[in-house]
Amino acid sequence: MAEINIQRKKSSPSPWLLIILALAVLGLIAYFFLRADNASAPDPAAAPATATSTPATDAEAESMARATPPPADGSGNAAVADMAAEEAPATPDELASFAANEAAAPDYGRRGLRMLSATLSDLADRADLRDAAVSEKRNDLTSAISRLDEPGANLKPGLVAATALMQAMQQKAYPDLEGPVGELADQARELSGRQTAADQAPLQSFFTKAAEVVRSFSQPAA
């Protein structure tokens, strides 16, 4: 008779035991993380005392400002001088009046160029004149004007830059002004750029014609 081998089936571990072990492991991990966070948190008592300091009063701020010495290189005075030297945009009538009546002034050329530059820069911001070419020429003019206060500065770069901006605006919106603006550009290139007595008459002629071109630019484009 055949012998039957009967083996007892091994029982699998209870799923509840596995769940309990997993929870225990997670609990240990959470404990170590929380402990590390608490160790790295700053102590409120150790905060610097400056955090609770009160802001300075107006009187204290004024006192500190008075106690601060001016820059040793005089840059503060230079900045004020630059601001004072800036010209506001002029009307065509103001430009024409200056050209006609101020020619005897020793700074006639520099002052006239600053007035013309400020006026042209203001016109260049107009929506119907604003484009890449006009913006580029305006930047060139601004750069040239910024060098007028340098020792021995010559007016010619600024005069040429001013007429270049005029030509850019003329090409943008005023085709009928090609002749007058072109003549003014030629005249700017012929000027010496100095401010001697012999240069006053050519400068006066230039500024007079420039005022007329500005008058035309002040009218709506066709």
UniProtKB/TrEMBL annotation:
* Positions of region (Disordered): 43-78
Compositional bias annotation for Low complexity: 43-58
Keywords from UniProt, A to Z, are: Membrane, Transmembrane, Transmembrane helix
**Can you tell me where the transmembrane regions are?**
16-34
Task: Look up the domain of life of the source.
Answer: Bacteria
Instruction: State the name under which the record lists this protein.
Output: Uncharacterized protein
Q: Give the source species.
A: Hymenobacter persicinus
Q: What is the lineage of its organism?
A: Bacteria, Pseudomonadati, Bacteroidota, Cytophagia, Cytophagales
